Amino acid sequence: MRLDKYRMMIGRFVRYGIIGVSGVGVNLGVLTLLRHLWPGQATTTYVLAVEASIITNYVLNAWFTFKARVHIPGFLRYNLVSAGGLIVQTAIYRLVLGHGVNYIIADLIAIPFGTVIGFVLSNVWVFRVREALSVHDPIERPVTEPPASTLRRTRGGR
Length: 158
Hints:
Layout: H1 3-37, H2 42-65, H3 72-98, H4 103-126, H5 148-154
Helix pairs in contact: 1-2, 1-4, 2-3, 3-4
């Protein structure tokens, strides 16, 4: 991979991280609200909070991180990818919660694991970014007009 591609990937990961931070805010807000509404439903409220952050993260990552359009097939792929992260996150969340750790701290411990899984799979499958050609990459230039000698003959020239 060339240096500019590393820079592009790092920039993409930084943008993904910024969106992830906003998703953490959505996750924590929804989780806090739902835990107050259904205090005995730790796993259900956690899954709903994660799904709320998945929805906002998909839209924002499509626009900001990957410069892609938002559409249902992409959202379904993103949700599938996020499901893998959700399974890992939920297992870690429940494990940490089971050790008597506060639910917000448990959530903050679990989130990075889902983030790494999500970025890698979003990059290679969900948004499948096609890298732009460099000005140094060879390309075939299409012929857009006939050669000058043909032009002269067709216009009555010699």
